[in-house]
Amino acid sequence: MTTSKAGSWPTGLQDIGNGVYAMITPDGGPNAGFVVCGEHVLVVDSLMTPAQARDFLAQIKRVTSKEIRFLVNTHYHLDHTFGNQFFSPPAQIISHANVRKKLLDLGGQAYVKEAARTRPEVASVTLVLPNVTLTGDLDLHLGDRLVRLLQPGHGHTNGDTVVYLPEQKVVFVGDLLFSKVTPAMHDGHNRRWMSILKKIAEMDIEVVVPGHGPLSSRAELEEERAFLREFRREVKGCFDKGMTVEQAVAAAKMERYSAWPFRERLERGVPRLYAELRGEI
Ligand SMILES: [Zn+2]
After folding, report:
1. pTM above 0.90, yes or no
2. Ligand 1 centroid to 183 CA: how many Å?
């Protein structure tokens, strides 16, 4: 276990107990996880680079020799899907139908090529698409474990899936939660995202595995909701004054959250929220 430079939280493989693990990558990078279920393993997200995915796979193999039967992609973003090839085959890849659709709309392998222009470390990725897609909740009964896949609607993206283990009170929320890290809001829907966070916080949960940042709990879900509320307040203030997107980007400083890394992400959140305030999304 090492400590991230971005914050001072534990990174690496975290044993949550009862066969549930979270993989927390350093510096607020993408997180993943896995659950040992009867004779099989269910993995949540596949990370981004081949190096990350291979390391994650090796850590799973160190814990269990059981077959990885399912991989859930919590959403389409490359830092959660580009490692898919290392898990499938043999895993069936489950996601919201919009994840497969979006990856195809982006050109499938062409999305990898485009991403590799700024991230050469993903150039060798062969994108493997989800092959089991759904639009609604799904219960998986694996061994004696219940795994609930919940699709709460358009929050971080229009294809978010939450993986809930009700008996263990653990929830993997993907990028609905960036814990102690500035969230990426360019595909989000601010108002619905806040209401989804409220609903998850009301569930019977003890441990929340975020898409980025440290292992969390209900408090961080509420902190994220407060962040989104403040962002809405600042940006809507600009919108209501008739300011342009560029002016709003300069004005929405989110001072209270200045310690959170990746502040440059605020910039892409502004036009998205403007579109929402105009009723376009
Ligand atoms: Zn994301």
Report:
1. yes
2. 8
Question: CA 113, CA 107: separation in Å to the nearest integer?
Answer: 9
Q: Where are the domains of the chain?
A: 12-227
Residue 187 Cα to ligand 1 middle (Å): 8
Of 114, 117, 96, give the one whose Cα is nearest residue 106: 114
Centre of ligand 1 from the C-alpha of residue 189, in Å: 13
Question: 39 C-alpha to center of ligand 1: Å?
Answer: 30
The CATH superfamily label for domain 12-227 reads Ribonuclease Z/Hydroxyacylglutathione hydrolase-like (3.60.15.10)
Q: How far apart are CA 191 and CA 86, in angstroms?
A: 36
| Contact by Cβ (8 Å): 175, 159 | no
C-beta neighbour count of 75 within 10 angstroms: 25
Question: From the CB of residue 2, how many other CB atoms can be counted at a distance below 10 Å?
Answer: 8
pLDDT digits (tens, 9 = 90+) for 203-238: 999 999 999 999 999 999 999 999 999 999 999 999
Dist. CA 75–CA 126, nearest whole Å = 18
